[in-house]
Amino acid sequence: MATRHLYAVRHGAADPFGELTDIGRRQSELLADRLASLPVDAVWHSPLPRAVRSAEIIGARLPGVPVREAPEAMDHVPHVPADPPPAWRGFFDGYDPAEAAAGARLADTLIERFARPAETETHEVLVTHAYQVAWLVRHALDAPAARWLGLSCGNAALTVIEYYDGAKPALLLYNDMGHLPADLRWTGFGPGVRP
Questions:
Q1: What is the mean pLDDT of residues 139-152?
Q2: pTM to 2 decimals?
Q3: What's the rounded Cα separation, in Å, for the pair 131 and 149?
Q4: pLDDT, mean of residues 143-150
Q5: DSSP string, 113-163
Q6: When you count CB atoms within 10 A of the terminal residue's CB, does the N or C end of the chain come out lower?
């Protein structure tokens, strides 16, 4: 087995209908420019339109790199804690056991597919959603399942995880927005003061 370099990114900013906004398109272009210097082998994306469009923009700036759907990258709640923290209790109201189990199965499938070493050295971009990036980071750090709740990421932010044969994963970057100018950073978060 060889190293899998996974570049997990949240899609660009989207409107309430899930379509990329002008800001989201620009964020995706700038992210693509940053990724263009890497030996990317594939761009994978969630089936949702905001991720599909972000991946198309990235792929257009990576000539010859295949852009493909990864159903495992679908936006979903990966884990419903038995006793959610008080700030999150309202969020989980209405999740029944069947929904929670379906989300857990999809999260397991995401981990099985992407969170492991590859057969050969690979550099793969995964355009997905905030919860899925958080779940991958939580897994790489071997943190408790409920820990994904505190891990947020911005639109078009870059997270890099390396998976090696016979070793624990290495989290190299998390929520890095260095490729975005100040006015395009911190979208996808609630109101508040940001560094």
A1: 94
A2: 0.95
A3: 8
A4: 94
A5: HHSS-BSS-EEEEEEE-HHHHHHHHHHHTT--GGGGGG----TT-EEEEEE
A6: C
